[in-house]
Amino acid sequence: MDFKGQHILSAEQFDKESLLALFEEARKMEEIVAGQRREEARGFEKIFDGKVLATLFFEPSTRTRFSFEAAFLRLGGKVVSGADMMTTSSVKKRETLYDTGKTLSQLVELIVMRHPEPGSVDELASGCSIPVINAGDGPHQHPTQGLLDLYTIWKNFEGKIDGLKVGMVGDLKHSRVMHSLREFLKHWDVEFVFVAPKGLEMPGEECVEDLGAVIGGMDVIQTTRIQEERFSSKEEAEKHRGKYVFDGEMMAKAKATAILMNPLPRVDEITTDVDYDPRAKYFEQVGNGLAVRMALLAMVLG
Ligand code: NCD
Hints:
The protein has 302 residues and is α/β, with parallel strands linked by helices. The chain folds into two domains: 11-142 and 287-300, Aspartate/ornithine carbamoyltransferase (Rossmann fold); 143-285, Aspartate/ornithine carbamoyltransferase (Rossmann fold, 3-Layer(aba) Sandwich). The chain is built from eleven helices and nine strands. The longest helix has 22 residues, at 16-37. The model has no long low-confidence stretch (mean pLDDT 96).
């Protein structure tokens, strides 16, 4: 599959072969980053020389925006960044996303965008003559987070994803990360276990509520916070708070070989003492995200 010049809007665009090719590239990117950190040989980090990336964020972000920007900078490109587009861009003056896309296409080579509305990134992309990458469109999808989560699984299980039991725990209704990761994992023979509070189930899937009863069978435990900004009121979200907490006691029930993941931010679903558990991979995921995004950017820009 050739991603050169393509928009990256949803997980469904990827087949297994292109995922594996991306991961091989990500491995190389990890070495480039390691070299940069050691201030050693800098072979190939001029590939985006003369190119400009625009990041358009209409929703808060720490990891996704900074890792896309760091990825582009590390490969020699330059970045213009809109971290607060809802209030600071002309969208505030009712300019359409389509026109915003038309405009940015005159200025930069690539766009990364996040927005609270499902389909919004597609709308901007419809006005663009340059590639657009979806960095999260409301509760719909977050394909690059799904990619880095899958990469984390692939690395930790040395490429052997078939046969794993993958647990997804938390607000599965609103988590775009879970939606994208589930899509990617369909290319492998995995067994899913969905654990969610009543009313926050994964669309179209059988879910269970009792985490303690099923955690012991999971090889991969992907968790996420209650996505409170997607609820009609703060009170509605609060009802579900504290339902699943990964602390020492809960982790004692998990397999010794399991990995615990979370796209972050965590709020109260993982206690900080668990950070020292070797099964905790959520900060490793962040580093993997840098490498995966470097690889994806390189593929998209050819
Ligand atoms: C996720 C998101 O924005 O969907 N964060 C991220 O990109 N790492 C998860 C979340 O906000 O809970």
